[in-house]
Fold this sequence. Notes:
alpha/beta, 12 helices, eight-stranded parallel β-sheet, 288 residues, globular, 8 strands
Amino acid sequence: MASESAPPQWIDTHCHLDAREFDADRAAVVARANAAGVTMQVLPAVGVFNFDTVRALAHEYGLAYALGIHPLCVGDASNDDLDKLQAALQAHRDDPRLVAVGEIGVDLFLPALIAIRPRQEHFYREQLKIARRAGLPVLVHVRRSADAVLAGLRRIEVPGGIAHAFNGSDQQAGHFVELGFRLGFGGAVTFDGARQIRHVASTVPASAIVLETDAPDIPPTWLYRTMGEREAHSPPLPQARNEPAEVARIAQAFAQLRGVPLDELAATTRSNAIAVMPKLAGLVAHAG
């Protein structure tokens, strides 16, 4: 007989479990996530150098992965890396755990990144073409770049995807949704001062929402350390580490923001993630 008190089941649609911040206790991180009901994670690559790592971790822990070249990494990438991405997608096309192309996109936040915008956009467009040929959705990075990312998607049609860590306007959100994309929300939505993110999170259609952590980054408010708190120690403390188990608590804040029951949010976001990354369906059915 199923337990009536079984916790909701969650999918972390964007988690960098391969990051060095998890080297000391990666198995425990996954165990905590499972205990919190976060029974599936999608691990995006950021460059050719970690393609094998995210794939191996996905198989070791029963998770999912994506392959792509992150906009922060294109400055060090070679043009041959695009060929390597296409070759890797072809080599692993029958791997049920390979669910998307990502993390790809454009980042217009830092001056050094703005300076290489043409190179970023070249890698972004070429990876959209690769994703289209592979028939896979994309996980797109949209930091200060929603319009640029949307422009690429209008030119090069792909099988949908997720706008990761979405922080754009209502209009931009609508454009992503029109293109068959979901919007990724995580720790940022837990900050009262994040008015724009919270507004979009509370007003977009339920069918557009997926949850994520971007762990070890974007910690929720209960983990976040201000600059003053970090510099009050000697040596200064690093920013607190986020981890996939936090999806469950982020979801509680999100459900309260939208005024919906927690189990309804779990079912909706799980369904949305599977709809946009169909290969998750078989994985989720056997997870937990």
